[in-house]
Write a structure and sequence with these properties.
Layout (H helix, E strand, L loop, with lengths): L15 E4 H6 L4 H13 L2 E4 L3 H8 L3 H9 L2 H8 L19 H12 L1 H13 L1
Parallel strand pairs: 1-2
């Protein structure tokens, strides 16, 4: 993964700083938004603390993946980052518990009654 290592000026007179929350929730006209976006692009405005949604859009990843990384304990985060562990584990569908023949017979008797259960068993063995 290639990351640019450009240095950003910090608190210079020519660079304004906006937070992700401000960007997400401030009321602006389309023209004001266009100037804000142009300022971000040109480096006249610096984005500080983008929201999870903004970060995920910029990184082209699901916000839920970003939340998973944020919620990872530091030790696990290092193992995930180095590829030792996956970010998320595959969901394994649990198999139903095995049912004993006696339990199946009891369920059949409870459902249809003893006489009908006996008739069904006789019919099944005659096939």
């Amino acid at each position: 993964m290639h990351m640019a290592s450009a240095t950003l000026p910090v608190n210079t007179a020519s660079t304004a700083v906006v937070t992700g929350q401000y960007l997400a929730h401030s009321k602006r006209t389309k023209t004001e938004s266009a100037f804000l976006a142009a300022g971000l692009h040109l480096g006249d405005i610096r984005l500080d603390l983008p929201t999870i949604g903004q970060s995920s859009v910029l990184a082209d990843v699901s916000p839920s993946y970003v939340r998973m990384v944020i919620s990872c304990p530091e030790g696990r985060r290092k193992l995930v980052k180095t590829g030792v562990l996956p970010l998320r584990f595959a969901v394994v569908k649990a198999q139903p518990m095995p049912v004993s023949p006696a339990a199946l017979a009891a369920e059949l008797v409870n459902a249809v009654g003893l006489d009908t259960a006996f008739d069904l068993l006789v019919e099944a063995t005659e096939r």
